[in-house]
Amino acid sequence: MKIGLVLRELHRSESDLAHELLQVSDRHKVDHEIFYVARDLAAWSQDHVREIAQVARDYGEELDPDADGEGGVATAVRDRASELVGRLSIPGLLLLRDLREVYVKASGVSVDWEMLAQAAQGIKHTDLLDVTARCHPQTLRQVRWANGKLKESSTQVLVS
């Protein structure tokens, strides 16, 4: 079975999404809704990482329950690039870029959850189905939040 591979990718993707949401929150501290909602959504992804790590043991994977992204040099470079872009960009355009990134990452995580749910259903593993039933709806809410904020902000930012 290749379920361990899907769990490993989902773990990495959720970690990356949590990290991205925290970065967005930090870059947009003056917008209280973005700041607080992005932090809440990041906490959901961090919870998902813990749940994935727990269930992954049953499928031969040892995953870090406290993983917070790619780590190391890649994260440092990406974070530094984000800081530089943030200083050079118009704040509204930076917000749109950040929301787009969250939307794309959350959509990818949603696809991973869907694949895992289909596999779990096919092999009748209720432990996986339970995890997907708890986590996937929250991921869908992350997608809807980013999409809604994009719709809300795009006209104002792009036309003014």
Quick one: biggest sheet? Answer: none
Question: Termini distance?
Answer: 53 Å
Average pLDDT taken over every residue: 88
Could you give the count of β-strands?
A: 0
What is the rounded Rg? 17 Å
- Could you tell me the CATH topology label: Ferritin
Q: Tally the helices: what do you get?
A: 5
* Alpha-beta classification: mainly alpha
Integer count of domains: 1
β-strand percent reads: under 5%
Helix content: over 70%
> Low-confidence segments, ≥5 residues, pLDDT <50?
69-73
Give, in order, the helices and strands. HHHHH
Sum up the overall morphology in one term. Answer: elongated
CATH architecture assignment name: Up-down Bundle
Can you walk me through this structure?
This protein has 160 residues and is an all-alpha fold. It has a single domain, classed as Ferritin (Up-down Bundle), CATH 1.20.1260. It is 84% helix and 0% strand. The chain has five helices and no strands. The chain has helices at residues 3-27, 32-56, 72-88, 91-123, 126-159. Mean pLDDT is 88; it is low at 69-73.
